[in-house]
């Protein structure tokens, strides 16, 4: 026990130093998972994260590296929160700091901190560059920012898969054995076709046929159906990146929101965490776009470890939380907090359950 505790503490210290000094020697492409965090499968709910042994409040639980990440900013040319496109960097680049754009001028949102980052990212970017040149502007004009971002994230997932298959990416080798990484992990995400409305699936299918088919512009060798299935999983599992913590509970008074979204990303391991409206994990991206999970209270052995999928300071009452989760993530929340706030059967007969305030 004492030996393993020492190892854990050393590891935590090393990780904490790493987080505080993101530019130092340690590589940013290596995920880290707390030794007491394990993956389980339960009937109906599917996969979950849980503690195999007690975890103390404040301990780091996971640092996951994105499989794909896109910046989300209003005005890329003047934005100070545009992220470097080199996946192993993903730092915010300041406007006027000498950041570099693509020589082919594919998209104003594609920048690198410097020539080192650009060179390191050359092969990956090559996969998306022609697609962006051809489709980014028309998709934005016709379908809007949300659908463009969704499709660009899919293209970046395909670029990572391409790199992995060419063995140009070393993410697979560094996969923690308890957790899958890479394309394997993306394929095992929850979020099947039939959890989405037919109209939604039809609209995604139309987008895939028009813009995401395998072609010389986007050579991925997957069928249109496989790409639609990938979108279903991406939409159910991607994270918005915000400057402050998500999932602080109880919500402090006065409430602190998580700030403006600056990116969206897909994480192979962090995606396993289920939602709770009274979560025991807070999550926040670090300076390299990695997702960091921290225990927000003591967690007992065997307890499920959950995050919040939305800003708890913004949606307070039961109905608004459930409506939001149902709309965006396709499930009715049955977490401890929602169950406790449900009206008793007698009350619900009087008021009518779905409209209860
Ligand atoms: Zn960079
Ligand atoms: Zn380009
Ligand atoms: Zn809930």
Automatic annotation (TrEMBL):
InterPro entries: H3K4_H4K5_MeTrfase (IPR050869), SET_dom (IPR001214), SET_dom_sf (IPR046341)
Recorded coiled-coil stretches: none
SMART domains the record matches: SET
Name listed for the protein in its UniProt record: Uncharacterized protein
Organism of derivation: Aspergillus kawachii (White koji mold)
Native organism taxonomy: Eukaryota, Fungi, Dikarya, Ascomycota, Pezizomycotina
